[in-house]
Structures are given as C-alpha cells and as structure tokens.
Amino acid sequence: MEYLKDTVQVGDWKGEKHVPSIMVLSSDKNEVMVKVRVGEEIAHPNTFEHHIGWIKLYYLPEGAKLPVQVADVNFTAHGEGNSLTDPQAVVAFKAEKNGKLLAQSYCNIHGLWENEAELVLG
C-alpha cells in the first residue's frame, strides 16, 4: 500500500523553488503573523502550463497530536505565458503555545512539497 506521505517532497527552500518558506513576522499570544511563500530564493515559473496551485499552513501546538489548519490559499488565476501570480500569503492567527508551523505547496507538474519551522511565542 502506498501512502500519500510517501509522495510528499522536502528540501531546502533556498535551493529548491518548490519548497514553501515559512517566516514568522511576529509572534505573541494575541496574534501570530506568518509569511509563507514558494520561490523565496529561486522564483517558480507561474504560467498556465507550470504553476503553484495552492499553499496550506498548519499549526501544531506543543503536546498536541494533530495540527490545526490555519490557512488554505488557492492560486486559481494563471497568466498564459506570463508570470502573474507570486505564490505567497501573510496569515494571522492566535496561538497560546509554542509549537511547529507546517506548510505544504502543490506544483501542477512536480507535486506536493512541505516544510516546517518552530514557533516560539515572544
């Protein structure tokens, strides 16, 4: 039996254009603000033929078994032959504990990619 987890790819977002980068812009218990972007260091071509379809962001609080989805951003408009869409999002949510941020992105040609980052509340 093949599992979906076996098809998700990982890498260093500084060396691979499909891996979502996760940047914590601010972090306190009232509001966590996170920027998630595909193509931070190496631009991803976003054309009709080859594009990022979506980015999802999850928060896994310390001690929790399951993550909570905090964002689901879909990029449904793609320019034919032009790089119109810059696949990124700034997300704000509340968190009461430190934990992990987990991001996934989907390229219509190269599949699923993921990354993670620590969330330390300030």
UniProtKB/TrEMBL annotation:
This is Superoxide reductase. Pfam families: Desulfoferrodox (PF01880). It comes from Helcococcus ovis. It comes from the Bacteria. GO terms for molecular function: iron ion binding; oxidoreductase activity. Keywords: Electron transport, Iron, Metal-binding, Transport. Residues 11-116 form the Desulfoferrodoxin ferrous iron-binding domain. InterPro entries: Desulfoferrodoxin_Fe-bd_dom (IPR002742), Desulfoferrodoxin_Fe-bd_dom_sf (IPR036073), Desulfoferrodoxin_SOR (IPR051233). Belongs to the desulfoferrodoxin family.
